[in-house]
Structures are given as structure tokens and as C-alpha cells.
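ARCHIVE CARD
Drawer: 12
Card no.: 0347
Subject: one protein chain, sequence and derived structure
Cross-reference: see card 0346
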Amino acid sequence: MRLDIKRLNLPFIITSTCPRCGVEVKVDLRIHPYLSYPLVGEPFRHTLDHMCGDEEDNEWPVTLRLVVELQAVADCTVAAKP
């Protein structure tokens, strides 16, 4: 399922190692880059970037999965629509 949200900012930090220079890179999804029209429940690719010294930006893909959960707390039940 694809969320019809162009810019989804989430309170998560992605940590990955730059494949070019080996530096640990942390990306805050509350700021930028956001997730654009993310898929729910399915793996999807997201591109990270990092400036290696004075060189150009280095970009590499990471694979993420967005999981959304809806729980009934009281007075109802919740079921997924087939």
C-alpha cells in the first residue's frame, strides 16, 4: 500500500556507513530527507548522501520498511480490509 503523502517526516534517525569514505552517517528524518510517497509493509529503497571531504556528494541506497499499526484500545475491534 502506498501512502498518499508527498513529504512524510518521521521521528527516526537512519544510521549508515558511507561506502566511499567509511564515515558513519546519521540522517534525521524529522528534518530532511523526508520519505516521499512511502510504501507501507513492503521494502523500499531510500537514497542517503554524504559529502566525502572536498569531493562531490556520495549517494547510496538503503532499504527500509514502514510499518503502520492500528490497535483497538477500548469499545471496538480493528480488522484489516482484505
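Annotation on reverse: The radius of gyration is 17 Å. The chain is about 0% helix and 30% strand.
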